[in-house]
Amino acid sequence: MNKNEFYYDLPQELIAQTPLERRDGSRLLALNRKTGEIRHRMFYDLPGFINPGDCLVLNNSRVLPARLMGSRKNGTGAIETLLLRDLGGDVWECLTKPGRKTPVGTKLIYGEGLLSGEVERSLPDGNKFIRFSYEGVFLEVLSKLGEMPLPPYIKEKLSDPERYQTVYSKEPGSAAAPTAGLHFTKEMLCGLEKNSVKLAYLTLHVGLGTFRPVKEERIEEHLMHSEFYIIDEKTAETINRTKKSGGRIICVGTTACRTVETAADDEGYIRPSSGWTDIFIYPGYRFKAMDALITNFHLPESTLIMLVSAFAGRENVLGAYNQAVKEKYRFFSFGDAMFLY
After folding, report:
1. Are 255 and 198 members of one domain?
2. How far apart are CA 160 and CA 164, in angstroms?
3. CATH code: domain of residue 182
4. Is the dihedral of CA 161, 165, 167, 173 positive or negative?
5. Quick one: pLDDT at residue 74?
6. Which whole-number Å values give the CA distances from 86 to 62, 171, 177, 292, in the listed order?
7. Angle 303-312/254-263 helices, nearest 10 degrees?
8. Residues 319 and 260 grouped into a single domain
9. 10 Å Cβ neighbour count for 284?
10. Cα angle 198-181-319, degrees, rounded to a multiple of 5
11. Structure confidence at residue 213 (pLDDT)
12. Which domain holds residue 95?
């Protein structure tokens, strides 16, 4: 398939720059993937689409304040460092700007010496391996110095960093939020549980590769980024029990979807596991475990709109997106949501 088959025209003013005051106050476009029927609702109406006995699968990864502003140790030139992946032993894969100013051996300093680093390796894609030095606990140092790494299409400053975290975020490690979960409130989740809906939490640390454009004309030639995931025994058991009893597996976001589909066997049952996944889901893929998906609206020609199209049908999805543009929905990370079932 060609990437231009996943293009739609989006006016810039529909890209949401700030979160709504009320998390569940966003709009919800419900798309029946079998009939193509579209219903316009509010996110707080979502419980009406979820049945007792269904299972919501949520990604509990927490976004790191991974954007560091520093300089070279000799005091010349500001350097922005974005933490992408923890390689262990205080070494991180990072993106530096400007990258040409940080060759191997460059010493970096942040927060007047509270944190320092040295570039140990430069990768073909321009990313760097940086070894950090500090006193105390790294995440505590990062919380003092780091900023939230908002996506490149968001130009407004975020007044409350917690609005780029889900209310159930727990495991630090992401460079971007699993944004479908930003709409949920603790009250909604409690209400769903009281209505016999199961909640199953997994972890997938979202990388900035999620924003990487597909450059190849033939999408099959795109090299997918990899991300680290964990599914524990309790979560696997909850999902499998739901499937056995006839309930639906409803993934909250493409990250939960990709994790579940990575860990599922051919019958759709999940095994407890952890590791790296680079699964690329596009039309033609046979879903093994997921029965419904809650997601935001995604960038044209992105791997995420390809995943959604694989699940609900390309024509259905592009029709829904064009309808959302016409109805002036808010798009992307702080935007409105879809329920595909």
Report:
1. yes
2. 8
3. 3.40.1780.10
4. negative
5. 80
6. 14, 13, 17, 32
7. 70
8. yes
9. 8
10. 105
11. 86
12. 67-145
Mind listing the pLDDT tens digit for each residue in 11-57? Answer: 999 999 999 999 999 999 999 999 999 999 999 999 999 999 999 99
**Strand pairing class (171-174; 115-122):** unpaired
Low-confidence ranges of the chain (pLDDT < 50): none
- 192-224 core/surface letters (b: 16 or more CB in 10 A; e: else): beeeebbbbbbbbbbbbbbbeebeeeebeebeb
Residue labelled with tokens 């259905």: 316
DSSP string, 275-303: EEE-----TT---SS--EEEEE---TT-H
At 69-107, the pLDDT tens digits run 999 988 778 999 999 989 999 999 999 999 999 999 999
Q: Is the peptide bond before 98 cis (omega within 30 degrees of 0)?
A: yes
Residue 153 included in any domain: no
Provide the residue type at 210 as one letter: T
